[in-house]
Amino acid sequence: MIYLRGTTWFMRRRRPKRYAAVDPREILNISLATDSESVAREKESAVWGELIEGWEAKLAGRDGDAEARYQAARDLAQQRGFRFRRIEEVAKMPTDEILDRVEAISEVKGEPDAMEAAALLGTARPPALTISRTLEAYWTLARDKTLGKSTDQLRRWRNPHIKAIRNLIGVVGDVELERLTPDDMQDFRDWWIDKVEEGDVIPASANKDFTYVGAVLRLVAARKRLGFVPPTPEPIKAGRQNTRLPFSVDWIRDKIIPGLGGLNSERARSSW
Q1: Which helix (H) or strand (E) holds 30?
Q2: Residue 197: DSSP 8-state
Q3: CA atoms within a 13 Å half-sphere pointing along the CA-CB vector of 93
Q4: Local structure of residue 3 (DSSP, 8 states)
Q5: Could you tell me which of 23, 26, 24 has the C-alpha nearest to residue 14?
Q6: Cα separation of 196 and 199, whole Å?
Q7: Of 28, 32, 222, 248, which is least packed with CB atoms within 10 Å of its CB?
Q8: How far apart are the C-alpha atoms of 89 and 23, rounded to whole Å?
Q9: Average pLDDT over residues 186-205
Q10: What's the pTM value of the predicted model, to 2 decimals?
């Protein structure tokens, strides 16, 4: 229902029991910020819908795993009319923009809502993604790359990615993506160089692994908006390969070169 208090219309609703864990208020009196009854009635359902969305985001942040909580913070920020920004980015914003975010945080029993504060001020942290979990996320985030592929084509597309990530983990361990360093990638590159020098593989094989590793790590970091670009190995340049001549030097000198002289003489006579 809506009611008039002074010159401003308010909405009065009972909070659904489902959201008791994220909002202790049983009865809500929400200002509709208008002195027009018709406008208030138009705004009532929209304001209530926003409250429901906010409660749902808070529930996800409260009950979900690390990834669900982080996504809930992003959703809650958007529901409040802001783009989620990590605290490092928020700190660099103009003062008035920071104040806008602070003022948008609602209060519960006189205290700032902790979930809204984490969402609007960027203190919610992205989940720790290990390299193996990054590959799991890649399959979902790269769905556009598999459209129209048959089961066999999908298998052949996935296998080199799996192999490359397995090789990387074998060298540097299943570390968190955010903690992966250029030194780790240099170790991975050195491991491949050793294999090339031993004659087990050619540089192109190593570079394919580097390509697949980079594709997985960078796409996941970008599409999850983690705020950093993972390092990738520098390609290995193939050295000049010695190619065995099909004939010995002596044979060319003794057999072919004398014949070329005779051939030139015949050509000269035919031109007279």
Answers
A1: strand 27-31
A2: H
A3: 21
A4: E
A5: 26
A6: 5
A7: 248
A8: 29
A9: 93
A10: 0.52
